[in-house]
Amino acid sequence: MTPPFNIGVLQLSMEPVHETVAMAKACEAAGFDTFWIAEAYPWWRKHSFEARSSTAILAVIAYETQRIQLGWGIISPYTRHPVQIAMEARVMQDLAGDRFLLGLGASKIFMKEIGEGEGEKIGPATVMRESIEIVRGVLQGDPFRYQGKMFSADVPPLKTDTHTPRGIPPIYVAGTGPVLQKMGGSIADGLLTASITTPAFVRYSRKNMEEGARKTGKDPAKLVLGSVIVGSIARDPRKGKEGAREQAAMYLANKVQNIKGSADVLLECAGLTFEELQPVAEAMEKGGRKAAARAVTDDILSKVCPIAGTPEECIQRIEEYRAAGCTHIMLEIWGEDRTGQAKLFGDAVLPHFRAKSVKSF
Question: Could you read off the pLDDT of 165-176 as tens digits, one per residue?
Fold first, then answer.
């Protein structure tokens, strides 16, 4: 079955838990399909944020919500052994049932932060494949033994009287390069793309995902392509872009300082160069995110293709992403009064798409 078109919200795990929970509840009330938590990392301390465990936060959110689907978007097997990932997934199944979505990614930034993966002979693709195989094997509940190049596992079977959920949630691979993007099609239920995704990058990513699916005999039409997209909204068009400008500044500075070559295609699809973004990164380093936002010109913001502005502008932009092949918008709302922005999306944007698609996948 072809996945319906879904619109969700993604938030980094870098703010107080009660604020993140409040945002998740506001998104549920507004009618969003999903709420994703992306794991922050200690780099954000330089800009007055603190990194927190995304799996712990999402468990709290699961307890505080009833309808909205909840996703790890993403966690890295470089920071958690796949058996532990399966254990934390079981917590989410306890609390959220089939609302839970599991996103895995190598997370080049986190690898850099903790010194993992550098100089390793075992590449991220192998790490990702083994992780997914182990997570599925453990969650299935049968006797499971595994010896890979990176990971091993030896887990006894679940007994029939064990009080626990069973089954495997949808698993998505996050990737920017072609190898991991193809794996999203070949061994997972779909692909998640990073922040600063543009419609051009969606088309590039879908091509890779579909190629991976066809090589293993899977139907590409059944796969999810989720994209993290910068956004903000207001009735006033200029105010509606303020949050997107600040969020774009943070991500663009981040990519210049931390990801570098790994973001080449991402930036090429946006028509951006590292030289063009250097002033943004320098402003971020010297004056923080507000200064970086001032360094984001209208031209740069336009190239980022945010879902931002008035409700009508947001609808038009979402349609562009949908036409490019995105099936799941992962909107990163930023700026003032984000719970109010979520409500405005729910009142003035989401109804346009509810008339065209079936909820949840």
Answer: 999 999 999 999
Distance CA 161, CA 357 (A): 40
CA distance 196 to 304: 6
- The owner of tokens 């006033």 is 236
User: What is the dihedral sign for C-alpha 353, 324, 296, 259?
Assistant: positive
* Contact (Cβ atoms closer than 8 angstroms) between residue 182 and residue 209: yes
| Cβ–Cβ < 8 Å for 104, 71 | no
**In contact, 244 and 232? CB cutoff 8 Å:** yes
Bridge pairing between strands 152-155 and 144-147: antiparallel
The rounded mean pLDDT for the chain is 93
For the chain, domains (ranges, CATH) are: 6-354 (3.20.20.30)
SS3 234: coil
Query: How far apart are the two ends of the chain, measured CA to CA in Å?
Result: 10
Evaluate whether 237 touches 281 at the Cβ level (below 8 Å): no
